[in-house]
TrEMBL record:
This is ABC transporter ATP-binding protein. It is a multi-pass membrane protein. SMART domains: AAA. It comes from Streptomyces apricus. It holds the Pfam family ABC_tran. InterPro entries: AAA+_ATPase, ABC1_TM_dom, ABC1_TM_sf, ABC_transporter-like_ATP-bd, ABC_transporter-like_CS, P-loop_NTPase, Type_1_exporter. PROSITE patterns: ABC_TM1F (PS50929), ABC_TRANSPORTER_1 (PS00211), ABC_TRANSPORTER_2 (PS50893). Keywords: ATP-binding, Cell membrane, Membrane, Nucleotide-binding, Transmembrane, Transmembrane helix, Transport. Residues 363-605 form the ABC transporter domain.
């Protein structure tokens, strides 16, 4: 998959590749900064270039000061002659300090903006992808790794700034050194190469480890969140699952610790080798400098400047190598983020497409076959041909796993069939404008979302784009029979439905379900899909909800009803019976009952439960 190719690319990254990639990295940091805040980006760049130049001028001025001080003549005269150069050094230091302050301020302003821009883009793209992408394990992994990209992009800003600064300072020091004596430059490079090698090796190992361990980190985070999640809390306590989860958490943490220890050991070894190499190169550098002095090939004042230039140069080269290395490390995470941008754009729900008929009469499935992406099980739907007449109540019936939910997901455009077509009065849904199609659907899914907001928002979120009016809200609550639910809430519609927050309230399963139906009613889609709408309702509430659903269809609304309660299906205009992804029967409830097929059999089983005599208690 994508991410592992990426890791391989990094594994091949050597010093030369790092240097050649540097301009691209700096440019991408600058582009992000430019997008976030142009003025701040300009200020940082100008200030850093200015600071680098100031360093060169300051080195030359120091050279001139040393030359004057070590020249011939009276000490007082020598001092006097050095004054202009000393004044230059002081002025340059002042300018450099001012530039540094400007750069610090602008960088500080840029950083959070860059992170926000990158995060917004991440969330925006992630929210727009197809459901199949969200359910795809590889895409999820990318979502996971890419989430660090935004903070990396933020960190890249000061690092890139530092790289520019160190680079210019280094060029200044190297230029001065070359002027002083050509032999000094290669020595400077030799002194710094070991740290470059060690920093690169360490970063490469850390990154490879991260990519191998990312799944492990995810799983361990999941386990720790299970231990604190309110939904899991009752079962953890009653079934005593806590110690089991803790044991797993500890085992996973210990494995991760062992990996950290391995990395630390390798880091220490690499650092030691680099330190020995640097030490030898430093000795060689100063020995060369001494040799040049002894041979009379270099004046003492020049040697003094050379020592300063070598120290400044090697410090800058070291900093440059470390910063370039960190920049690469962060860039790899930003790379994950950029790959997510690209992949999410490729897997986004397409925009535009054919218009659907204004008032279609039927939605027709023609030889539809669908297998869930990545699944090697039998198709969830096989060669399915059926009609959903609009403006009616259509019930989907069948045993668990027969494909009912899958069918409505396809009808809602959440998935596309691999074979066959779904036609809205002759317009193929595959070519239709998907966003427009979704506009028409209101859905109460089996596992519909409990939003951690107020009751009001929990209903109105059904059509978040519409202005929230009390009239529409009350109408929807009425349509779902949810007025009592709201009346019982401590702060009515303003009650926060999130127990984990102060003032939050928890609804019962049935209350939640009614609010879910109110949300779908609020949406006012022309097709209402209700998947097991009464699973959590008591007998009276169930009757009431079906009554309401029936009333909705009376207003011209299409209702697609999935339920196992066959007594509730008797008001449907049409029933499709599915079995193992295939359509086995279709007709009105009466037709199906008299036919004596699967529907009649299931109906008989349910009715039989009520008719069966209750066994008498044993008497002792
Ligand atoms: N997201 C998914 N990924 C892979 N397979 C899935 C997914 N959802 C459902 N399936 C499989 O597709 C088949 C049909 O499932 P579906 O949920 O449509 O059945 P259903 O008739 O609605 O069942 P139930 O009555 O239990 O709700 C099942 O074999 C199920 O395991």
């Amino acid at each position: 998959m994508g991410w592992s190719q990426h890791a391989d690319a990094f594994m091949e990254l050597n010093l030369r590749a790092m240097v050649t990639r540097l301009p691209t990295l700096l440019a991408s940091s600058f582009r992000l900064a430019w997008r976030a805040d142009r003025r701040a980006a300009r200020t940082v760049l100008a200030a850093e270039v200015g600071r680098g130049l100031a360093q060169a001028v300051s080195l030359l001025a120091v050279n001139s000061v040393l030359g004057r001080l070590m020249g011939g003549g009276e000490v007082a005269d020598r001092l006097r002659e050095a004054v202009p150069a000393l004044a230059t050094v002081a002025a340059v230091m002042l300018v450099a300090a001012l530039l540094r302050a400007a750069s610090t301020y602008a960088t500080g302003r840029l950083e959070p903006k860059v992170e926000r821009v990158a995060t917004e883009l991440y969330l925006e793209r992630a929210a727009a992808v197809e459901l199949s992408a969200i359910e795809d394990e590889a895409f999820h992994k990318l979502l996971d790794t890419a989430q660090w990209g935004a903070s990396s992009a933020r960190r890249m800003i000061p690092i890139a700034t530092s790289v520019v600064n160190a680079g210019i300072s280094l060029i200044a020091a190297a230029g001065v050194l070359t002027v002083l004596h050509p032999a000094l430059l290669p020595l400077l490079v030799t002194m710094t190469l070991p740290s470059a090698w060690s920093a690169l090796s360490i970063a490469r190992r850390r990154y490879a480890s991260y990519h191998v361990w990312v799944q492990h980190v995810r799983a361990s985070r999941l386990i720790s969140s299970l231990l604190t999640e309110p939904g899991a809390a009752p079962e953890i306590r009653v079934h005593g699952i806590g110690p089991f989860l803790l044991r797993h958490f500890r085992a996973m943490s210990e494995a991760a610790e062992a990996e950290q220890t391995r990395l630390a050991r390798l880091e220490a070894r690499t650092g030691l080798i680099a330190a020995v190499w640097t030490g030898l190169a430093t000795v060689a550098t100063y020995a060369t400098l001494g040799g040049l002095l002894l041979a009379g090939a270099m004046a003492l004042s020049v040697a003094g400047t050379a020592v300063i230039a070598i120290r400044t140069g090697s410090a800058n080269l070291n900093r440059l190598v470390l910063e370039v290395n960190t920049l690469h490390e962060e860039a790899l995470f930003v790379g994950d983020l950029q790959r997510l941008y690209v992949e999410a754009a490729e897997r986004a729900i397409p925009v535009g497409g054919a218009a659907l008929p204004e008032e279609p009469r039927e939605i027709r499935f023609e030889d539809v076959t669908f297998t869930y992406p990545g699944s090697d099980a039998r198709p969830a739907l096989s060669d399915l041909t059926l009609s959903v007449p609009l403006g009616k109540i259509v019930a989907l019936v069948g045993e668990n796993g027969s494909g009912k939910t899958t069918l409505v997901k396809l009808l809602s455009g959440l998935y596309a069939p691999q074979r066959g077509r779904i036609l809205w009065d002759g317009v193929d849904a595959a070519t239709a404008d998907r966003h427009r199609l979704a506009e028409r659907i209101a859905m109460v899914a089996q596992d519909f979302k409990r939003w951690p907001f107020t009751a009001r928002v929990n209903v109105a979120i059904g059509r978040a784009s519409a202005p929230l009016t009390d009239e529409r809200l009350n109408e929807s609550l009425g349509q779902a029979g949810a007025e009592d639910v709201v009346a019982d809430l401590p702060r009515g519609l303003d009650t926060l439905l999130a127990r984990m927050f102060s003032g939050g309230h928890e609804l019962s399963g049935g209350q939640r379900q009614r609010l879910g139906i109110a949300r779908a009613a609020y949406r006012r889609g022309t097709i209402l899909v209700v998947d097991e709408p009464t699973a959590a309702l008591d007998a009276r509430a169930e009757l009431e909800v079906f009554e309401k659903i029936r009333a909705l269809s009376g207003t011209g609304q299409t209702v697609i009803l999935i339920t196992h309660r066959l007594a509730s299906v008797r008001h449907a205009d049409l029933v499709h019976v599915l079995d193992q992804g295939r359509l086995v029967e279709s007709g009105t409830p009466e037709e199906l009952l008299s036919k004596g097929g699967v529907y009649a059999e299931l109906y008989g089983l349910q009715a039989g439960q009520f008719a069966a005599p209750v066994p008498a208690p044993e008497t002792g």
